Amino acid sequence: MLRQISRRGRLLALLRDSFHSGTTTVGLGLSLMAKTLFPTSAETATMNDTNVTSTTTQSDIPIAIYERVLAYTNKNFSSSNPYRDFRRLPHPGDARVLGRRAISIRHWKHNGREYSIRGAHPGNSSISFDHNSIHDARFIEQMWRFLVDGRERTLMVISLHMFLLPLDQEKNPYTQRPGLACQLVYSRRPPLHDWVVISPEQIIGHVAYYQRPPGSFGIQQTTTVLINSLHRYRDMLKFQ
Questions:
Q1: At 83, is the pLDDT very low, low, confident or very high (cuts 50, 70, 90)?
Q2: Domain edge (last residue) among 103, 128, 152
Q3: CB 3.0-4.6 Å disulfide test: which of 50, 72, 101, 168 passes with 197?
Q4: By percentage, how much of the chain surpasses pLDDT 70?
Q5: How many structural domains does the chain have?
């Protein structure tokens, strides 16, 4: 049994190396062989590589993000037959393994609107969305495209805004003006463990914002004003 697992591991490693080295013909032949010998595990082990084209490249998802992507995938897409973490070696013969490599994308069009990661276009990265039945607003930090059960999926990694401390919240002028649909938060980026994963279907719309320097409103830190009215409540009905 151990010898069989080792042989399969070497074969799948060779398959992955052939794709990364650009030997397309050899990679295709090995892919067909692997799917014949190990129909389930070979498909899942190479599912991320099937997205590779001449215009797309793959990279490793950061481990902290990968763990959130794996949890989100199993909860929302494959709860009845969950994927395994690629690090949990050795994998059983019928294992479904979520690979770490995926296509990193900078821009994504959804419902006719352009969305981007924060590093590419900060304005297009500021969104409102539904998270656990709560209407929220955040920035898109990363977007990853990969295959789940043969279907292409795109997931967005969102950084959480840092809310004002109680003393600063007392100085927030927008609390007494709810009709402006404005929210005041700290501008500093939160730690990685506070980021969350969502699907594009959870997006409501863009959120306009502008930053205020330290000292604004009597608050000593840089703040950001979020103006959550661009959607004009057109997409809010589906969340009521």
A1: very high
A2: 103
A3: 72
A4: 71
A5: 2
129 and 202 together in one domain? yes
Name the token pair of 221.
């830190």
Percent residues over pLDDT 90 in the chain: 45
* Residue 38 pLDDT: 43
For residues 85 and 113, state if they share a domain.
no
